[in-house]
């Protein structure tokens, strides 16, 4: 019992920390582009997780590269959306990723289970209440929904890839490093000035700004990504898939709570009703579903 109880506590802590990442990144969007935030966060996490790449198998590295490419686009949409909407609203919409996996099965020709239909109805009702509370559907919401779709595809690919993994944390380290590399390539191709003089001033300005927000970046990269992934692995090994799904479903509520404390973002009763419907839909969609890999490690 203590082992199981400690596993539940670990996943609760993981969920709370995930909830803080939404206001933390939202705060940074006032000063940095989405790709800068992704690059610094994942470069720090990659440095922390690099020991797991020692003697990693080629198959694990390939799986990590594929997953990292998908995860990069998940975060591009998520952070770009955060810049245009509130962190709590972004978190609730991104949480819909758990519905994408069973819906992909529907596209493959499999009839949806009753619980999936119920979860979809609850989620649509939740989105309607959120929009009623916080204004009409906007570009930031569409980007958050794109992030949810990408996360759903990422989770589906992860289910396949992690079953073949020799060392799961090697795959995780490889994917975190791939996200950082993708962000760097994107940055060099789209944001770096072409003139040498302008490039030097631009880079110096960004380095100074990163230093000014160093604690926020360190928290996101070291604590909320590298350290929390290790805790997630440990906690999931001591709990069931259904228990993990229920605990993780409360991540958007944690994001709303920390969004209020961190940024002063508030939700009305209608907003909380929408959030409750979305969380309930997430739980229903995952209850008694097929067990995911022992540690489906998806940083938030």
Task: Give a brief rundown of this model.
By secondary structure, the protein is mainly α.
Describe the secondary-structure layout.
Elements: H1 2-28, H2 34-49, H3 58-82, H4 87-94, H5 97-107, H6 114-134, H7 139-163, H8 168-190, H9 196-212, H10 214-236, H11 241-248, H12 251-263, H13 269-286
Helix pairs in contact: 1-4, 1-10, 1-11, 1-12, 2-3, 2-8, 2-10, 3-7, 3-8, 4-7, 4-12, 5-7, 6-13
Characterise this structure.
- With 300 residues, this protein is mostly helical.
- It is 78% helix and 0% strand.
- The chain is built from 13 helices and no strands.
- It has helices spanning 2-28, 34-49, 58-82, 87-94, 97-107, 114-134, 139-163, 168-190, 196-212, 214-236, 241-248, 251-263, 269-286.
- The chain starts with a helix and ends in a 14-residue tail after the last helix.
- The relative contact order is 0.23.
- The model has no long low-confidence stretch (mean pLDDT 82).
């Amino acid at each position: 019992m203590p082992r199981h109880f400690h596993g539940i506590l670990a996943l609760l802590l993981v969920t709370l920390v995930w909830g803080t990442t939404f206001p933390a990144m939202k705060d940074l969007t006032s000063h940095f582009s989405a790709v800068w935030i992704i690059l610094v966060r994942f470069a720090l996490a990659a440095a922390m997780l690099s020991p797991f790449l020692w003697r990693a198998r080629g198959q694990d590295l390939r799986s990590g590269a594929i997953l990292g490419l998908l995860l990069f686009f998940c975060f591009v949409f998520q952070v770009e959306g955060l810049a245009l909407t509130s962190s709590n609203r972004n978190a609730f919409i991104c949480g819909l990723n758990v519905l994408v996996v069973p819906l992909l099965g529907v596209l493959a020709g499999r009839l949806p289970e009753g619980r999936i239909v119920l979860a979809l109805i609850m989620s649509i009702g939740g989105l309607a209440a959120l929009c009623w509370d916080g204004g009409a559907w906007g570009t930031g919401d569409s980007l958050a929904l794109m992030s949810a779709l990408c996360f759903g595809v990422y989770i589906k690919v992860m289910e396949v890839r992690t079953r073949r993994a020799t060392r799961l944390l090697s795959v995780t380290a490889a994917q975190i490093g791939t996200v950082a590399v993708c962000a760097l390539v994107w940055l060099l191709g789209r944001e770096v000035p072409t003139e040498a003089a302008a490039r030097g001033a631009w880079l110096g300005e960004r380095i100074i700004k990163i230093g000014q927000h160093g604690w926020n970046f360190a928290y996101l990269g070291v604590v909320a990504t590298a350290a929390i992934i290790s805790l997630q692995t440990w906690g999931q090994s001591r709990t069931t898939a259904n228990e993990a799904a229920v605990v993780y479903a409360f991540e958007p509520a944690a994001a709303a709570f920390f969004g209020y404390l961190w940024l002063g973002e508030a939700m009305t009763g209608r907003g909380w009703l929408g959030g409750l419907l979305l969380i309930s839909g997430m739980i229903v969609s995952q209850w008694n579903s097929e067990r995911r890999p022992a540690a489906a490690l998806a940083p938030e």
